[in-house]
Write a structure and sequence with these properties.
Radius of gyration of chain B: 24 Å
Helix content of chain B: 10-25%
Largest interface: A-B, 35 and 43 residues
Largest sheet of chain A: 5 strands, mixed
CATH architecture of the domain at 73-202 in chain A: 2-Layer Sandwich
Oligomer: heterodimer
Number of helices of chain A: 4
Order of helices and strands of chain A: HEEEEHEHEHE
Shape of chain A: globular
Number of helices of chain B: 4
Strand content of chain A: 5-15%
Number of strands of chain B: 31
Number of strands of chain A: 7
CATH superfamily of the domain at 73-202 in chain A: OmpA-like domain
CATH class of the largest domain in chain B: Mainly Beta
Strand order of the largest sheet of chain B: 2-1-3-4-5
Helix content of chain A: 25-40%
Number of domains of chain B: 2
CATH topology of the largest domain in chain B: Neuraminidase
Distance between the termini of chain A: 88 Å
Shape of chain B: globular
Structural class of chain A: alpha+beta
CATH superfamily of the largest domain in chain B: TolB, C-terminal domain
Radius of gyration of chain A: 24 Å
Strand content of chain B: 35-45%
CATH topology of the domain at 73-202 in chain A: 60s Ribosomal Protein L30, Chain: A
Chain lengths: 206, 390
């Protein structure tokens, strides 16, 4: 009797081992990694082809590329607001590319790099578009401090895109601090969602 | 035997009468106050004869700055009066049996008269500036809109200042004037506005790319400090009060935030992450090297310089928020109470700050020497970022 039970035990434990080897660790939230650039939105063809240096856009409005300075610390100056005024914003196109941050930090996480690469790729292929980066925080941290932290996050994403070859002139940043959470919850799950940078496409000026 | 004891007792009584039992005399000019010990001492008073709002205002105001309610036989000072129509009152030193002041008021509301009387009492008995007729500005957040409000220091007579259905925040008073500076997103960017509360006129002061926030007007009314990110990082800048002649004071990779001026308008304290965790620094307003002043407490932010120049109060972000205080010259910081976003009253004793409870934020008042707290503004929505008019 005993040897039979023993064999049964060994057999069942072996079976268990084999089947449990496929057990997954808790699911990590999936960062959508685009296989190809996002679908192109059809735009009215500009009357003249886009010329990067002091050319014309659409209705012939001249754009001047102000040379942006990088200071000794490596901070890249922001372009003045004139360029970005009266531009329609499209929040949907890069919705899946929102990147996230650790608590009280503004460093780009390795998991998010493919998102930034896809956005950079799009911008290079669509030179008439500009980009708006929104920086956001969770509710921890004081409100005024979070305005600066949100801005640091947007700037961090901008700097990475510049490194990938996107012209600094084309990228605008806005911080909303903790003012615009996507999840109003008071728990770590909500906070993790709120610590983010969102990317909005800025359509060419009409 | 009996006569000897009696004479002894009489003799003692005489000595006690002759030796001054308190530091207060009938003549206010002779008031001698040993500041630190006196600040913390709760002075027992008795308030009689007043009714309704006059009574509640007097009690609230005086309890806020270190007076405590006592019976007439145990009080150090008797505050007696009436408010039939108008308020009148007098203050008597109970121990010396001497009158200290007598006042009568007309005009305005009963609340206003009671606040004026309370100011007078505090001025005479503590030698402190009265704050009971001052105003605070703050922001209230409901759903997705944030608007600026102004009220009496005690949260009464609330008036809504902005009606933009946008985000308005970080309000700051112009010293001595009914003018507020604040950040608003009404033009699709966080820009700094100057808002004249008397005329309703609004002017854009700073509208650079990126962040324009945390405006702070110098006490001499000549300069404006603010946080701008136009150079690629949130930095401290100073300009004229109309935004001209902009000078960049910090050039770090890290974020700076929340500037506050020294009372002589020569220095600015601010928070920065230049050394890693947030700490408080001071810097000459004309430019120079930042000097760290917060030690022993990390994640220090939102500093506010006391009007008498001695202390910098700030928020430390520990497991929860704590209001902390440090000497303005630098030193070990001391934890006061749970809370955030502190702003000094003109008396360098009272502080408006924010508490969180039940998932909401509301404004409270702290008496720094005694650490007593009174809650004042609870509206629907989150009330925060108080600025005390000076």
């Amino acid at each position: 009797m005993k040897p039979l039970i023993l064999t049964a035990l060994i057999a069942s434990s072996l079976i268990l081992m084999l089947t449990s080897s496929g057990c997954k660790s808790p699911q990590k939230p999936l960062t959508p990694i685009p296989q190809s650039p996002p679908p192109k939105i059809t735009q009215p063809a500009p009357t003249k082809p886009f010329i990067p240096e002091g050319g014309t856009l659409g209705n012939g409005q001249k754009i001047t590329e102000t040379p942006l300075k990088t200071d000794q610390q490596g901070n890249v100056e922001l372009n003045n607001l004139e360029r970005f005024e009266d531009r329609k914003a499209d929040r949907e196109i890069f919705k899946a590319y929102t990147i996230h941050f650790d608590f009280d930090r503004s460093e780009i996480k390795p998991n998010d790099i493919p998102n930034l690469e896809a956005i950079a790729d799009y911008l290079k292929k669509n030179p008439n578009d500009d980009l708006l980066i929104e920086g956001h925080c969770d509710e921890r941290g004081t409100e005024k401090y979070n305005l600066a932290l949100g801005e640091r996050r947007a700037l961090s994403a901008r700097e990475y895109l510049i490194k990938l070859g996107v012209s600094a002139n084309r990228i605008r940043t806005i911080s909303y601090g903790e003012e615009r959470p996507v999840d109003p919850g008071h728990n770590e799950e909500a906070w993790a969602k709120n610590r983010r940078a969102e990317f909005l496409r800025l359509l060419p000026k009409e | 035997m009996k006569t000897k004891t009696l004479t002894l007792l009489l003799g003692l009584a005489l000595i006690i009468e002759l030796v001054p039992t308190s530091l207060y005399s009938a003549n206010p000019a002779e008031i001698v106050i040993t500041r630190d010990a006196e600040l913390q001492r709760l002075i027992p008073i008795s308030i009689t004869g007043f009714t309704g709002e006059a009574l509640s205002v007097l009690k609230f105001d005086l309890e806020l700055v270190g007076f405590t309610n006592a019976s007439p036989s145990e009080a150090q000072f008797l505050i007696e009066g009436s408010n039939d129509g108008n308020l009148q009152g007098k203050v008597i030193d109970r121990i010396n049996k001497t009158p200290i002041l007598a006042k009568s008021y007309s005009g305005g509301t009963i609340r206003a008269q009671a606040h004026a009387f309370a100011d007078e009492i505090v001025n005479r008995l503590r030698g402190e500036k009265g704050i009971f007729q001052t105003k605070i500005a703050f922001r209230v957040r409901n759903d997705n809109a944030s608007e600026i409000y102004v009220s009496d220091f005690d949260g009464h007579n609330i008036v809504q200042v902005t009606h933009d259905n946008s985000i308005a925040l970080t309000p700051a008073w112009f010293p001595g004037k009914r003018i507020l500076y604040y950040t608003s997103y009404i033009k699709g960017n966080p820009d700094i506005y100057r808002h004249d509360l008397t005329t309703g006129e609004r002017t854009i002061i700073a509208r650079y790319s990126g962040l324009n926030t945390c405006p702070a007007v110098s006490p001499d009314g000549k300069k404006l400090a603010m946080i701008l990110s136009k150079a690629g990082s949130p930095d401290l800048y100073v300009s004229d009060i109309n935004g001209q002649n902009l000078v960049r004071l910090t050039t770090t990779r890290a974020a700076e935030s929340t500037p506050s001026w020294s009372p002589d308008s020569k220095y600015i304290c601010f928070s920065s992450q230049m050394s890693g965790a947030s700490a408080i620094y001071t810097i000459p307003a004309s430019g120079g090297q930042p000097k760290r002043v917060s030690f022993g407490i990390s994640n220090a932010t939102e500093p506010n310089w006391s009007p008498d120049g001695k202390y910098i109060i700030f928020t430390a972000n520990m497991r929860d928020f704590q209001i902390c205080i440090t000497p303005a010259t630098g030193g070990t910081a001391e934890v006061l109470v749970q809370g955030e976003s502190p702003c000094w009253a003109p008396n360098s004793r009272t502080v408006a700050f924010v508490r969180r409870s039940g998932g909401r934020k509301y404004i409270s008042l702290l008496d720094v020497p005694t650490k007593k707290v009174k809650n004042i503004v609870q509206m629907s929505g989150d009330c925060s970022q108080p600025s005390w008019a000076k």
